[in-house]
Amino acid sequence: MSLPGITPQEYSYLQTATNGLNEQQVRTFLMIYSSKRKNPSDMLLFCVIGLFLVPGLQRFIVNQIGMGILYLFTGGLCLIGSIVDIINHKELAFEHNQRMVFESLQMTRMGNFQ
């Protein structure tokens, strides 16, 4: 697997999730997943932009629209939420990537990619 910025935690999660798939399904899964996942380094960049320019940008990027709107109208929850997101940017990316693993697995299993 050549996924930029992959953490050992994410790699272990992917190995567990793809257990039982054949080689073609794993390739299809990786193709779908790599287009949906967020790199933790990119997430840090979005969090910094969210702190200084557009509050809540990082939440919009990970499809947490409600939290993004809340951050937007409260100035990143008075900057505290944005600072917390900078500290927890890896966890924010990992939670998003876990959801994308689930979606990618469903697409791989339901699709007829032979």
Present the secondary structure layout:
Elements: H1 8-17, H2 23-36, H3 40-52, H4 57-61, H5 65-73, H6 75-78, H7 80-87, H8 89-110
Helix pairs in contact: 1-8, 2-8, 3-7, 3-8
Overall residue-averaged pLDDT value: 92
Globally, the shape reads: elongated
Poorly predicted runs are none
Number of helices: 8
- Biggest β-sheet: count, sense, barrel? none
Estimated helix fraction: over 70%
Class from secondary-structure proportions: mainly alpha
Q: Quaternary arrangement of the chains shown?
A: single chain
β-strand percent reads: under 5%
DSSP E strands, number: 0
- Rounded to the nearest angstrom, the distance between the terminal CA atoms is 20 Å
Elements, N to C (H/E) = HHHHHHHH
Gyration radius (Cα, Å) is 16 Å
Write a structural description.
This protein is mainly alpha-helical and 114 residues long. It has 8 helices and no strands. The longest helix is centred in the last third of the chain and has 22 residues, at 89-110. The radius of gyration is 16 Å and the shape is elongated.
Could you provide a short overview of the structure?
This protein has 114 residues and is an all-alpha fold. It contains 8 helices and no strands.
Give me some keywords for this one.
114 residues, 75% helix, 0% strand
